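Key result, reporting period 2: structure in, sequence out.
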């Protein structure tokens, strides 16, 4: 007779790949036109001046400039200021 019990197969151990969400360019950093500032699911951050949403709610820059984060009525907005 066998002295060891047969090892059962585990039903655990699965996980999805990370989606790499979050802030890509932080406050007071320079961005070029069209670059991604934030990747997000839903509207955690809101688009301000000189920025736009893509179809997956990522926020992109419309112009070359400096990224500014600010709060307005408990919402966080991102805008890009033009630099000369």
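The corresponding designed sequence is given below.
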């Amino acid at each position: 007779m066998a002295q060891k019990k047969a090892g059962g197969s585990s039903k655990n151990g699965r996980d999805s790949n990370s989606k790499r969400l979050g802030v890509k360019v932080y406050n007071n950093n320079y961005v070029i036109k069209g670059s991604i500032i934030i990747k997000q699911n839903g509207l955690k951050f809101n688009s301000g001046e000189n920025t736009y949403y893509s179809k997956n709610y990522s926020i992109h820059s419309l112009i070359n400039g400096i990224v500014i984060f600010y709060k307005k009525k408990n919402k966080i907005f991102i805008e890009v200021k033009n630099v000369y």
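The longest strand covers residues 65-72. Residues 72 and 81 are 17 Å apart (CA to CA). This case is discussed further under Risks and Mitigation.
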